[in-house]
Write the structure tokens for this entry.
Amino acid sequence: MKKERYERPVILKMNTGLMNKFGKKTDFEAVTHIESVPVKSLLSDYGSPLFVISEKQIRRDVQNAIRIFKTRYPKVQFAWSYKTNYISAVCQIFHQEGSWAEVVSGFEYDKAIENGVPGNKIIFNGPDKSDDQLVLAARNNSLIHIDHYDELYSLIRLSEEHSLKPRVAIRINMDTGIYPKWDRFGFNFENGQAWNAITRIINSANLNLVGLHCHIGTFMLSPSAYAIAARNLCELAWSIKEKYNRNIQYIDLGGGFPSVNTLKGAYLPGSDTVPSIDQFADAITDVILGYGFKQDELPLLILETGRALIDDAGYLLGTVLATKRLSDGRRATILDFGLNSLFTSLWYEHKVSPAQAYGDYTEEMVLYGPLCMNIDIVRESIILPLLEKGNQVVVHKVGAYNMTQWMQFITLRPNVVLIDSENKTHVIRKAETREYIESMEQVPEHLKENPLK
Amino acid sequence: MKLKKNIATSEEGFIFNPSTGDSFSVNPIGTEILAFLKKDKPLDEIIEIMCEKYDVDRSIFEKDLDDFTSQLKEYTILD
């Protein structure tokens, strides 16, 4: 006789008087497939936990963003923000879709070169560029975005020493009405620092000022902040034209567009609060088009969008290790991934779905990771169907920052698998092994003897 | 292990504790277990019956039953 499906017995106290108009519905859909590939087979083939990236989704999102901007403005160029996800296969998808590379370190710069990106299509941002890296970037005709005066003077010196004429822009910080104001990067607009830096560059014999750059923040929820940023950059470009009769070739508005994730502490889910890319595009292009540039002098608009183009395409699959009850009666579920893999659980209330059929009952629980550390919490409170040891779960929208900011801490980093446009799977980053981690270590001779043997 | 005499239970899984005024919702398997407890069925027998009926390992069911009964105690539903 076939036995009936089991579900853990559960009793829930019914509370009244706690209605919340912002409450979310508590019905779930089991996510049994990513694209058309079963979650079960992904986990059995590649191990648990497992990052999965959908190539189709990346292409959909980047093509959509390009269409949105190009239908509003004639000269648009996206540059893939390497730090958001620099697994080579992911970068190549963006490059195939026409994105340049936007890098913030020598390591990322070398990765972009290795990925075959021509030097003149690499934007070199960030406060940390060594002399050697600056010379290399200048020789490669890359776009060097100067972050501070020390870098500016280094570049002037290096250009003279090596007879180089690097193409440069400066990064500009400004008050766009958002909090916190990002003023640690670049030169300030309001106090005249940016204009002084521009003047210094224009007066130098070797530096070729070709662009203006800003990056006003991250996970920006206000399109109007981009309008202010665009206006300030246009004002500088216009002033450069008037005073020095030089056309600025491009305006780079950086990144910062949000993905449809829910920030911790947010009243409403991200799906209800995050503006669409159309709204950002309207805010930015309306300002530039309306500023008064002649048609043939319109600057190229560069966007370094990262998160909004990759978060959707990334999934983290995992398995329930155990369930238990905490001293205050709350249910706790321990998963085989935690803060070490899912770094963004520090910022987001990630959507987590069960990956198998379940009953009608749900319960509130804490989701813990596997680390023997108190901070390892994936969700402080989430309502999910009754989970059991061995059940599988899917975390959504994890494509950005996790596969770069993850930690090799206590345990090893898992496989990353790409599902291509034909639903074939490819390992694009192998799971780490103890041998791989230890290959970087060296034990001095006198410490090799272990008396406990 | 016995259900308090005054606890009202329904077949649909609604529980009312008139001494505290608390109401509870119980899932179908929990409702079955409560019905056994109401009839003073020993836990060993409940385990036998449920493991026979449902697709579950005995060790898992024992763990879940332990958790369930501790919740019942917490809510002062058991004597």
In short: Chain B touches chain A through 28 residues (CB under 8 Å). The beta strands of chain B are 8-9, 14-17, 22-26. Chain B has three helices and three strands. Helices of chain B lie at 28-38, 43-53, 58-74.
